[in-house]
Amino acid sequence: MKGELYILISHRFGDLTNGFENFFGLDEAITKIGGIYGATNWLSLGVSRHRNNKTYELAVKYKLANQMDEGFPFTIVGYNTMDINSELKKAANPELKFTNRLAYTSQLIISRKFSEAISFEVAPIYVHKNLYDDTSEQEDLYLIGAGGRCKLSKRISLNLEYAARLNTTSEFKSPFYNPLAIGFDIETGGHVFQMIFSNSQPMNDVAVFSNTKGKFDFSKGGGIYFGFNMYRVF
Amino acid sequence: MKKIIIALMTIGFATTFISCESNTYAEVATVTNPTYTDNIEPVFRTQCISCHKNDEQFPNLTTYEEVKASVEINPGEGGVLCYIDDPSQCFSSDIMPPTGRMPQTTIDMIKLWKTQGFAN
Question: What is the predicted ipTM?
């Protein structure tokens, strides 16, 4: 909403399937810290800093259409992020240009609230990297994402999110997996607290969509990361 | 409102133009004679020593001697090259650094540094 500022702090712990070796991941937390500002009622701007690649992520989200009771059936939102990788070193990459540090995601999030308790969304997603490892990554990646939310009580909801990569071809064997996350939102007047299990430890959109490491498998090394997000509105 | 839309469109177009030119790591990582001071130390400083210092995590990787000693170890017997490249060889499922595998070009540069005799 216009004029509101959200401060957010998130952690993802290490791979919990490693058990006591890393105390179910708690030894290896990574952090995201950032803010989201509502410039108008239909536009918000975000900045965040991620441990992964010492990334700064700039984000812009804008509402294009609103679901109406007796009218248009969907809410449509555009969402773009730009990552700046500040960890890349000239020492290891002498030909590095500033633009090589940038990577982008674009999403069109189409959502519908079916009842007070249940909402769904579908999102075509595009990821572009100005620097990529051609042995394991792609310059351009297309995904189709889907998510759902089910309110369990007045303050608690269960959320699920998945995205399928569409252009990982058979001759190109990607070492990464499709991102999957399941979590609970707990609203506590002024705060939103989210607990989440994901197969991606990094939290920036580029990494979640294109560099998800975990198989979401309960065997050792299966790659399940527990974490939480905290939002505070000012 | 109008101004914001114009600003957004400008950013959008600028972004599209910048995005046109992509490079691979192989194209930008063109180090042929890596030395510890110029090439290796910056990698270990940003990737490793937030933990591998002051005996917090074995081994320390803060000096030329420490880094050399660990890179010297054959991958099958542990050491840096095992953990950053193929940790299944050294009894661990965790890749180092824990935030994710380094680009292959950086791993190859460290191997090249070893092959060429650990230039300081």
Answer: 0.79
A contacts of B19 (beta carbons < 8 Å): 102, 104, 128, 130
- A contacts of B99 (beta carbons < 8 Å): 30, 51-53, 201-202
Global pTM reads 0.85
Range of the domain at A116: 5-233
Mean pLDDT by 10 residues, chain A (234 residues): 90 89 84 95 94 92 92 94 91 89 95 95 96 89 96 95 89 86 92 95 95 89 92 91
CATH code: domain of residue A76 = 2.40.160.40
Going from the C-alpha of A154 to that of each of A111, A187, B108, B112, the distances in angstroms are 21, 9, 54, 59
B19 touches chain A (CB under 8 A): yes
3-state secondary structure of A109: strand
CB-based contact (8 Å) between A74 and chain B? no
